[in-house]
Structure formats: structure tokens, C-alpha cells
Amino acid sequence: MQNIKFNYLYRDAGNYKLFDEVIFSNPKNIPLNKIENIIKVHLMDGMYFDPQEWGIPLLEFPEYDEELDHDWHEFESIEITTEEATDYRTISQFLKQISGK
Fold it and tell me: What is the dihedral of CA 32, 35, 38, 39, to 10 degrees?
């Protein structure tokens, strides 16, 4: 079975970045382009999301700087992977969560 890797990052106002990924199982074999289209529809300004609303681990630097730090994270890409899932949700469940359904 091919899983889906969701790649994302946190970029503060100083352009410092942290990267992470979450891997979802894809038992229904939803095509990558369909998954990406659903994700993009639910991004703020075409690239941002709130990781807490989406149930994705929050990325943050060790020390909070109120002038540079914020809550939004950036969607980077998705890809097919054979790596094991790191999230208990399937990609279908994740898409339902971000769609508010």
C-alpha cells in the first residue's frame, strides 16, 4: 500500500524555518492530485493553515518572539511514500477533518 506524506513548514517573520512531515495511510488509494486539490481549497491565502485545527504537530522555535512568531504553518507538498504511517488517521479522515465534515 502506498501512503501519503504531507510536507509542511513553519516560517517566522524573520524567515527562519522549521520543516516536518506527517504520513497518512491511503487504504482507498485516493489519487495524489485529488488529495492535493482538496488540501489547497482549504488553505488560507493559498498556502497557510492552522496546525491545531488540522491536528498536525505544531512547529515552534524554543523561544517565542512575539515580534516574529505566529500560528500559521505553510503547506509545502504531498507525495506518495512507502514509509509507515505516522498518524492514526487515514488520508480520507484527514481530508474530512480539514473540510469540516
Answer: -100
Split into its structural domains, the chain has a count of: 1
Q: Which residues of 40-73 are buried (b: 16+ CB within 10 A; e: fewer)?
A: eeeeeeeeebebeebebeebeeeeeeeeeeeeeb
Residue-number span of the structural domain to which 71 is assigned: 3-99
pLDDT of res. 99: 92
Q: Considering only CA atoms, give the Rg of the chain.
A: 14
Q: pLDDT tens digits, residue range 44-87? A: 999 999 999 999 999 988 877 777 777 789 999 999 999 999 99
Between vectors from CA 89 to CA 87 and to CA 95, what angle results, nearest 5°?
A: 115
In a 3-state reduction of DSSP, which class is residue 9? strand
Angle between helices 32-41 and 91-99 (to 10 degrees): 20
The Cα–Cα gap between 86 and 40 comes to: 22
